[in-house]
Specification:
Pfam families: TRAM_LAG1_CLN8 (PF03798). The protein has eight helices and no strands. The protein is mainly alpha-helical.
Length: 241
Amino acid sequence: MEFSSVILTTGGSVGFFRLVNLGVSKLPMPESACRNEWKWRNISTSVVHSLITAVWAVLCFFLHPQMAEDLIETHSVFSHALVSFSIGYFIYDFFDMVLSQKLSQSWELLFHHIVVITCFGLSVLSCRYVGFAVVALLVEINSVFLHLRQILRMASLATGTLYRVNSMINLGTYVVFRINTLAWMTRWLVLNRDKVPLLAYTLGSVGMAIMTAMNIVLFYRLLRSDFLKSSTREAKKEKEM
């Protein structure tokens, strides 16, 4: 893709997610979610991004399997467009949070978005490591269930069967598509150190370290909230009986 195409795709993505957000605001909202209307719209928009990106990332490797053998140079226009599209979403979401939340409430996600925009931006502009970026976007498969978890909680549906099933799928896909994917990417970076320029290697290593730390902390929070606490409550109920 030429530079103009990258700008068009990224800019179009920013506009698309702005329209999605506006569209969500026109739809009915659970009464319990009205306390934080912005968060409901933001998470709903994130679900749309995750669904599109998850399917798109899988299709990239299905339609262009040779990309899996060379994550540095080999890529298709389809995969390049995916990374550009995702940059647009992260730019949109960055400014949505900056304009709607206090820094103390969103600094972790803002920092995450800066790292992703920087790494993906260098990839699409240099037309290198696009395959590596697409591998990183496989985490969006888990993000579908991660965002759905937040929607269910905001809709006061955190005690039903649907929530429990989603929690189990969320934790399973978290291990497979977040922790395992990040571990594989880190291993790949180390094994291919001689093929990667120092700047790209340093940026990639720092980015992987930050993402790994953030994901381990989030995994513990999910485990504690959805499984450890519920187990404790059940144990207390059994003692009372």
